[in-house]
Design a protein that fits this description.
The chain contains 11 helices and 12 strands. By secondary structure, the protein is an alpha+beta fold. The protein folds into 2 domains: 262 residues, Bira Bifunctional Protein, Domain 2 (BirA Bifunctional Protein, domain 2); 35 residues, no CATH class. It has a 7-stranded mixed beta sheet with strand order 3-7-8-12-11-10-9. The two termini are 39 Å apart. The structure holds guanosine-5'-monophosphate and zinc ion (ZN).
Amino acid sequence: MDMQTSLLDRLFDAGLLIETGVDGLYGRSGVFEDVISRFEGLISAYGGAEGAEMIRFPPGMNRAHFETSGYMKSFPQLAGTVHSFCGCELDHMNLLKCIDEGGDWTKTQEATDIALTPAACYPLYPTIAKRGPLPPEGGLYDLQSYCFRHEPSTDPDRQQMFRMREYVRIGTQEAVTEFRQTWMDRGVKMMESVGLDVEIDVANDPFFGRAGKMLANNQRDQNLKFELLIPVNSAAKPTACMSFNYHQDAFGAKWGLAFAGGETCHTACVGWGLERIALALFVRHGLDPKAWPANVRKTLWG
Ligand code: 5GP
Ligand code: ZN
């Protein structure tokens, strides 16, 4: 049995994750959820004073916005779309027959107007653009969403449906880059306060194909993405539990995010992978939170 399967099995055995029969798709126990909600409380304690506007989108987004975002250009391998039965009664009879015969009934499903949200901030940009020009100080938003990425794996820190908390800053280049730096510093402090060893490193998104290699290299060369890494499954290959992304004015230009004078806004987002952080805590301190070190318990539970 390899290390990865054994961590997943330990989590199943402890009842923290609940098997569904699909790799990367799990139920979570009350204990697991409590850790996530306490950690979210810690995030809010660090970021709450800045008056971010809280918005919660569902885990599906407007497919037209998903298309405009260019996700299919960069990450077609990860995307998920929602399809439904849209036929008549005869189609329904054929559908049931096909299921009965063990055929592929999904072939006749048709695309709906909904795509699965790939990152918590994707539905935000068109929403803010629709409101019109931003004030000179820009905007700050607090988001959380289940996200979907089609990457089945038996590694429990790679899940197909997982939650991402994000703060997003829209504003001038200066404001946005300062926001990102502030959260890189806070991210390290926050993780240390719950007893996790961290390092921050430059990173890239998993752009698809040969052209994607170039995009990934550009992203790294320009320091556009950093990740906060914590050992979960392996000390040698720590897991990205937070990311700090500077989009320059790319999203501003794409969505028409601009100040009243017409100048395009810059954007940055900082994201927490909530399941990954919970897993990092369970691996570091043990599978029973009641037995975690007193200082960690105090930070999370007060
Ligand atoms: P990014 O948009 O940078 O890829 O993802 C933001 C954060 O979501 C990451 O830093 C990570 O913590 C979390 N994340 C990304 N992919 C996965 C995944 O496959 N499973 C889980 N549980 N979290 C992920
Ligand atoms: Zn984001």
